[in-house]
Amino acid sequence: MLAKRIIPCLDVKDGRVVKGVNFVNLRDAGDPVELAALYDREGADELVFLDISASVEGRATMVEVVRQTAGEIAIPFTVGGGISTPEDMKRILRAGADKIGINTAAVNNPQLILEGARRFGAQCIVVAMDAKYNEAWGEWEVYTHGGRKPTGIRALAWAKEAEKLGAGEILLTSMDADGTKDGFDLKLTAAVSDLLTIPVIASGGAGKMEHFYDVFTEGKADAGLAATIFHYKEIAIHDLKADLKQKGVEIR
């Protein structure tokens, strides 16, 4: 069994880290390069940067943020947001990112997963998936465009398809749990984890240390990702890791 990973997530807009609840009501949470360096020192296993600036200016800002961050940290980091071609991937990887996160672009063009995996290796391709429970289906539906657009695609089928096309990991965000601090969506995470052989990063809902224990045991996730609780110093990463180790979870 792979050792579990703790991954802070930085949503970056116009060169600043922001955080919201259920994908809205954004507030400033600091400088991305400074936060990344802090998390590296505090024992984070990896980082995820999500560029939520949709403009061309946002892209240029993000490349610079990636370049600066790569010079400050030793741990791997994934960058996602607005990456829609292999050339976009190449630009971000060249700037110093270790992995690329793709979401909307992958749904719109699944071949992008295949092309990315062929050119840069499956280990570089993280397919991010925003999923929300659909009462009518009794299953989860994939949303795109930062959680704003329902696709009519079933989440479990899409996760399987992404793996088949060459994704190295799935970054799974529960829109129902995002920002609530009530715990990860264990049913969704376990359903996806049971289906796949590639690692699943659980995202959305972390509020307490025990939520990570739950998502690693009951949810069967390979990594736990969070933002608010780390940005606002509600939980320290080294304390979280000590707590998990004490409970018998093998951690990086």
TrEMBL record:
- On whether Lyase is a keyword of this UniProt record, the answer is yes
Q: Keyword annotations for this protein?
A: Amino-acid biosynthesis, Cytoplasm, Histidine biosynthesis, Lyase
- Known catalytic reactions: 5-[(5-phospho-1-deoxy-D-ribulos-1-ylimino)methylamino]-1-(5-phospho-beta-D-ribosyl)imidazole-4-carboxamide + L-glutamine = D-erythro-1-(imidazol-4-yl)glycerol 3-phosphate + 5-amino-1-(5-phospho-beta-D-ribosyl)imidazole-4-carboxamide + L-glutamate + H(+)
Among InterPro entries, the record links this protein to: Aldolase_TIM (IPR013785), His_biosynth (IPR006062), HisF (IPR004651), IGPS_HisA/HisF (IPR050064), RibuloseP-bd_barrel (IPR011060)
The EC code for this enzyme is 4.3.2.10
Q: What class of enzyme is it?
A: lyase
The pathway it acts in is: Amino-acid biosynthesis; L-histidine biosynthesis; L-histidine from 5-phospho-alpha-D-ribose 1-diphosphate: step 5/9
Give the matching PANTHER family.
IMIDAZOLE GLYCEROL PHOSPHATE SYNTHASE HISHF (PTHR21235:SF2), IMIDAZOLE GLYCEROL PHOSPHATE SYNTHASE SUBUNIT HISF/H IGP SYNTHASE SUBUNIT HISF/H (PTHR21235)
Q: Which NCBIfam families match?
A: hisF
The similarity comment for this entry is:
Belongs to the HisA/HisF family.
State what protein this is by name. Answer: Imidazole glycerol phosphate synthase subunit HisF
Q: Which organism is it from?
A: Paenibacillus graminis
> Gene symbol?
hisF
